[in-house]
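Dear colleagues,

As part of the handover before I leave the project, I'm documenting each prediction I ran so the next person doesn't have to rerun anything. This entry is a single chain, and its sequence is reproduced below.
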Amino acid sequence: MPGLSIDDLPAMSPAELRAAWREQYRKPAPDIGPDLLRRGIAYQIQARVHGGLT
């Protein structure tokens, strides 16, 4: 999912979110609900754009 943005996340199905998690984190998605998947993916996107925690 190149070019994935935070704005894309609300419309994504659970399967699409799990695939996006796998792409962002380079490991399988944990067994959590779609809302938490969205939050985790959004965090990764923001960390890449603005830098991680310092």
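The helical segments are 14-25, 34-50. The chain has one domain: 9-50.

All the best with the project,
I.
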